[in-house]
Design brief:
Blueprint: E1 3-8, E2 19-21, H1 24-33, E3 35-41, H2 52-62, E4 68-71, H3 76-91, E5 100-103, H4 113-122
Parallel strand pairs: 1-2, 1-3, 3-4, 4-5
Helix pairs in contact: 1-2, 2-3
Length: 123
């Protein structure tokens, strides 16, 4: 199975080497059909009722995970809820404890060079 890195966001551009998806349905399709090395997730999407937290809940329910997961949302409440949901799944052993889960909010307008380094190292 082909290995890719995925960036879910409807506002920011994806870092080089990442597949950009703008909806949770697009992201779920990739999770079902590819081996995902790094999955970076936003909370707030254009469709207010189908956000990143809903995606994380579906991922846990269907046991669809990446090798590494970063929550990059600038929405502190939504991002923390996503992060906590994934960490709880690890504590419950629904999600493998070897998966690295990070909470690293990104600014909306640009990626500072040291933040981009996180994405370059993971690919």
């Amino acid at each position: 199975m082909e290995k890719i890195s995925v960036f879910l966001d409807d506002y920011r551009k994806a870092p080089d080497g990442y597949v950009l998806v703008e909806t949770i349905d697009e992201c779920l399709e990739l999770l079902q059909n590819f081996d995902i090395e790094h999955l970076s997730l936003d909370h707030d999407l254009l469709n207010k009722t189908r956000n990143g937290f809903m995606l994380v809940q579906k991922m846990v329910k269907e046991k669809l995970f990446a090798n590494r997961i970063t929550i990059h949302s600038a929405n502190s409440v939504g991002g923390k809820a996503m992060y906590n949901c994934l960490k709880q799944a690890q504590r419950n052993l629904t999600m493998p404890p070897a998966i690295i889960v990070s909470l690293r909010p990104l600014p909306l307008k640009f990626f500072p060079p040291r933040v981009l380094q996180h994405y370059k190292e993971i690919r």
